[in-house]
C-alpha cells in the first residue's frame, strides 16, 4: 500500500531506475516553481521532490540554501507548497515532499498529512526527523495512507539501519556521502555498499541522493539503486540563469540528460 | 565536580534526552552514530574517577575555579537586596564557558578525535574553544556569523591568536543561529574525525544534559559559598539566558531547594512588544530548532525569526530544552530584560563595584534589580539574591562605549 511505489513498479517494468528531481516550492516564485517542475516532468523526471523552504536547512548545501532563501524572501507559505504539489501531481507525475520537521509541526502534523493527501502528494522525506521522534507522523501517515521516507547514512549502524528501514514505506533514501546536498565531481564509493546493506533488510526500493549532477553520474547510480535523486544540480540551472526562459531551458536540458542517464546506464 | 554529585536516578532528561515534551533528537541520521558515541563516552566519563579528577584539576589549576562569591555591597544598596555575585567573569578566558569547553575537550581526547568545531555568538565560546584546542593540541574551526565577527572583532583576533580558524558565516541572518547551522553541516561531513563542541545547553541529545553537567559546578559552588557566607540558602538565583548554559549551571544545584526562586532573564532587545528581541520563552512558541524541541522565535509557518539583542551572546532565537521544561513546570521563572535596562545595570555595576560585566551578565543584574522590590515586599525583609556574573565586559567595550557615547564614532 504505497503511493509512490507506482513509479518504482513502472520503472522496474521498464528495467530502469526512477529519476527523482528536487526543487524548492516557491523558487524563484510559486508560479515559477510550478513551471520548473512541469518542465522537469516533460523531460522525463519520474518523481518530483518538492522541498518546503525552511529558514535553517542544516542538511542542505549552498545552492539549495540560496534557493530556499529566495523563496522565503518572496513570501512563500506552507500552504503555497501544497498548491505547488497539487499542480504538479495533476500532470500525472508522482510528487513527494521533502521537509524539515518544524514547518510540519507548526502546520499541525495531522492537518498537514490530510492536506498533503488531498493535494495528491505521496508522502514525506524527512531529513531531520528520525523514526525515534516520529510517533505523530507515523500515526498521521497511517491515517492518510502516505509514504514515509526516512534517511539512512553510511554511518548508520546495522541495528539503526534495520529500525529505520522498518519504519519506511514507499522507498528508502540512502545518503550517498557524509555531507550536505550539493553536486560533487565524483560519485560516492560508500553508496553501493550502503544500498546493498539496505537490500539485506528490505525489499523496498532504494533511492540514492547527495552529489549526483550529471547524466553519467545518474547512470552509474542507476546501475545499483532503484532511484536516482538529483537536487542541487537542477536547482542551480534556475539559480544561475540570467532570466526565467534561460533557466527553464537549462533545466530541461539537464533533466533530459539525467533521464537518458537512468535509461541507458553506463556500460 | 565529584562523582557523588552525578545526577541522581529519576532526574531528567530520560534516556532519549526528553525533558517532558522538550528535547530529543531532530537531526539527520548521519549524526546519530556520533551522538550515540558521544553519549556513551560522556556517561562513562561521568562515573570515571580518573576523568573527574582530571576535569577537577583543570578547572582548579587552569580555569581558576571555584570562582568567588562576592557580596556587592554598593550595588546591593542600590538594589534593595543583598546581591551576591558569582564571579564567573574571573575565570580564565573571562566567562563560565571555559568549564563546558574543558569538559568537552577532555571527552574529545577520550574519543580519539583530533578536530573540534564550534559556533560562537559573542565570541566567548569560540575563544574558550580555541583555548582548549591549544591546550589539548586539537585542530579548531569556529563558525561565527558575519554580523558578530564585526561587533566582536576583538574576540575574532583572540581566536586567531590561539591558532583557531574563524569562518565568518554569510547565510541567513549572519548571526549565531546561522553559525550553528554551518557547524552542523561541517559536522555531518566530518563526523569521523571531528567533535562538535557545542557552546550552550541546547542542540540534540546528549548535548543539553552534557553541557549542563559540565557547568553545574557553578551552582554547586555558589550553594556552598552562600551557606558559608550567609548561613542560609539564597531567596533567589538570577542568571541571563541565551542558549541557557550559565543559567542551568547555576540553577541545577538549587532545583531541589524549592524555597529558592530561580529566575532566568531573556534578552528583551528593543522590547518584546516590538518583535525585535531574543526572548524565546516569553515571546516564542514550542517548535524544533537545531536538533531539539524547545521554545523558538518563529512565524506561523515555523520559519525561524531573527532575534535581536544588544548582547551578541544572547542573540539566539531558541533556548536549551531544559529551560523550556523548567518554565512549563513552573520551577523557574523567565522574564525579559530589554537593552536599555541591561545597559543601565551594566553602568551601575561599573560605577558601584568597579566591575565591568559582560552585557549578557548585565541582563541578569538588571533582572535582579527588577525582582528585588517584589521579593522584599513578599518576604518582608531584604532578600538575598545570587546573581551569576557569567562573564566580563572586556569584549563589550566597543559596544558599550558606542551605547554610552564615550567612544569616537569613527572607531
Ligand atoms: C558572558 C556570557 N554570558 C552568557 C552567555 C549566554 O550563553 P548561555 O545562555 O549559554 O549561558 C554568553 C554567550 O556567549 C556569554 O558570553
UniProtKB/TrEMBL annotation, chain A:
<comment type="subunit">
    <text>Tetramer of two alpha and two beta chains.</text>
</comment>
<dbReference type="Pfam" id="PF00290">
    <property type="entry name" value="Trp_syntA"/>
</dbReference>
<keyword id="KW-0456">Lyase</keyword>
<protein>
    <recommendedName>
        <fullName>Tryptophan synthase alpha chain</fullName>
        <ecNumber>4.2.1.20</ecNumber>
    </recommendedName>
</protein>
<keyword id="KW-0028">Amino-acid biosynthesis</keyword>
<keyword id="KW-0822">Tryptophan biosynthesis</keyword>
<comment type="function">
    <text>The alpha subunit is responsible for the aldol cleavage of indoleglycerol phosphate to indole and glyceraldehyde 3-phosphate.</text>
</comment>
<dbReference type="InterPro" id="IPR013785">
    <property type="entry name" value="Aldolase_TIM"/>
</dbReference>
<feature type="active site" description="Proton acceptor">
    <location>
        <position position="60"/>
    </location>
</feature>
<comment type="similarity">
    <text>Belongs to the TrpA family.</text>
</comment>
<dbReference type="InterPro" id="IPR002028">
    <property type="entry name" value="Trp_synthase_suA"/>
</dbReference>
<keyword id="KW-0057">Aromatic amino acid biosynthesis</keyword>
<dbReference type="GO" id="GO:0004834">
    <property type="term" value="F:tryptophan synthase activity"/>
</dbReference>
<feature type="active site" description="Proton acceptor">
    <location>
        <position position="49"/>
    </location>
</feature>
<comment type="pathway">
    <text>Amino-acid biosynthesis; L-tryptophan biosynthesis; L-tryptophan from chorismate: step 5/5.</text>
</comment>
<dbReference type="InterPro" id="IPR011060">
    <property type="entry name" value="RibuloseP-bd_barrel"/>
</dbReference>
Automatic annotation (TrEMBL), chain B:
<dbReference type="Pfam" id="PF00291">
    <property type="entry name" value="PALP"/>
</dbReference>
<protein>
    <recommendedName>
        <fullName>Tryptophan synthase beta chain</fullName>
        <ecNumber>4.2.1.20</ecNumber>
    </recommendedName>
</protein>
<keyword id="KW-0057">Aromatic amino acid biosynthesis</keyword>
<feature type="domain" description="Tryptophan synthase beta chain-like PALP">
    <location>
        <begin position="65"/>
        <end position="391"/>
    </location>
</feature>
<dbReference type="InterPro" id="IPR023026">
    <property type="entry name" value="Trp_synth_beta/beta-like"/>
</dbReference>
<comment type="function">
    <text>The beta subunit is responsible for the synthesis of L-tryptophan from indole and L-serine.</text>
</comment>
<comment type="pathway">
    <text>Amino-acid biosynthesis; L-tryptophan biosynthesis; L-tryptophan from chorismate: step 5/5.</text>
</comment>
<dbReference type="InterPro" id="IPR001926">
    <property type="entry name" value="TrpB-like_PALP"/>
</dbReference>
<comment type="similarity">
    <text>Belongs to the TrpB family.</text>
</comment>
<keyword id="KW-0456">Lyase</keyword>
<keyword id="KW-0663">Pyridoxal phosphate</keyword>
<comment type="subunit">
    <text>Tetramer of two alpha and two beta chains.</text>
</comment>
<dbReference type="InterPro" id="IPR006654">
    <property type="entry name" value="Trp_synth_beta"/>
</dbReference>
<keyword id="KW-0028">Amino-acid biosynthesis</keyword>
<keyword id="KW-0822">Tryptophan biosynthesis</keyword>
<dbReference type="GO" id="GO:0004834">
    <property type="term" value="F:tryptophan synthase activity"/>
</dbReference>
<dbReference type="InterPro" id="IPR036052">
    <property type="entry name" value="TrpB-like_PALP_sf"/>
</dbReference>
<feature type="modified residue" description="N6-(pyridoxal phosphate)lysine">
    <location>
        <position position="97"/>
    </location>
</feature>
